[in-house]
Design goal:
278 residues, Transferase(Phosphotransferase), domain 1, 3-stranded antiparallel sheet, nucleotide-binding, Kinase-like_dom_sf, ATP binding, Prot_kinase_dom, kinase
């Protein structure tokens, strides 16, 4: 649990306090786990948002050379708005061997975990793919270890197929690569809504794309999505908030200043308002 205590991120459930003797832990309350609620998550846009949230939590851990190793729908908490990774009991540092406080759930095991081979960031990527598949279809892609080792997955999202490649080197090697393809998929959906003049549906995707760009310090594309939102949002108060946000992004682009957390937090509030009133 010492590893978990070192992680502090918006998409990771906080471990506030713990002891091994006597055994107890105090964890942030983050709603229900996805296994309890995923049948009620019907929106494709909501699924993309959850998966991006989870990938953000993984990215934070991976920058610290930490693997989760037990990423399942039971270990991701969801409060209706944000997803947070919990239960880091199987976590370990890359290239280090340590005793698991609990065994990883078998239906999510990556092939290298079953075969006792080297694990890496690609191991968490595999489990992220299983989670993506489960949220999309309502079931996990494999029911036992034999199915995992004799993988045959056909799914419309190439992203999931790449995550679930049996060969480690064919998977995404970083969360950033995964996020780039997820952003491209969301953008494709968004552009289809724009082309078909279905902006009621498209606005939510545009909000998500804005936040993805801001969190990845992509001010140029964030500026573009802000332009779109200003055009499509009817609420004058929110429109003014978007214009102020746009000016803040413009200033940082012109002066080559990274996007701070305060702007991201402000954008999260604004986009939440947009989704409530659209």
């Amino acid at each position: 649990m010492l590893i978990w205590a070192k992680l502090n991120h918006q998409n990771i459930a906080r471990l506030y306090n713990y002891s091994t003797n006597p055994l107890f832990h105090e964890i942030e309350y983050c709603g229900k786990n996805l296994k309890e609620v995923y049948n009620s998550i019907k929106s494709e846009e909501r699924i993309f948002k959850i998966i991006f949230d989870v990938s953000e939590g993984l990215k934070h851990a991976h920058t610290r050379n930490i693997l989760h190793r037990n990423l399942t729908s039971a270990n991701v908490m969801f409060d209706g708005r944000d997803a947070k990774i919990s239960n880091w009991y199987c976590a370990r540092y890359v290239n280090r061997v340590s005793r698991d406080l609990q065994k990883p759930y078998s239906k999510y095991l990556a092939p290298e975990m079953i075969l006792k081979k080297k694990e890496g960031f690609y191991t968490d990527i595999w489990q992220l793919g299983v989670l993506f598949y489960e949220l999309t279809t309502g079931r996990v892609p494999f029911n036992n270890k034999d199915e995992i080792l004799n993988i045959k997955v056909v799914h419309p999202y190439e992203i999931i197929n790449k995550c679930l490649s049996k060969r480690r080197k064919r998977r995404y090697q970083s969360v950033e690569d995964f996020q780039n393809d997820l952003k491209a998929l969301i953008n494709e959906k968004y552009e289809n809504f724009v082309e078909n003049k279905e902006m009621f549906k498209g606005i939510s995707y545009c909000c998500d794309l804005l936040l993805i760009c801001l969190k990845n310090n992509d001010g140029v594309n964030a500026y573009k999505y802000l332009d779109d939102l200003i055009e499509y949002v009817d609420n004058n108060s929110i429109k003014e908030d978007l214009k102020h946000l746009k000016e803040s992004i413009k200033y940082r682009l012109e002066n080559h200043i990274p996007i701070p957390k305060e702007i991201i937090y402000n954008a999260e509030i604004i986009t939440h308002k947009i989704k409530l009133v659209k």
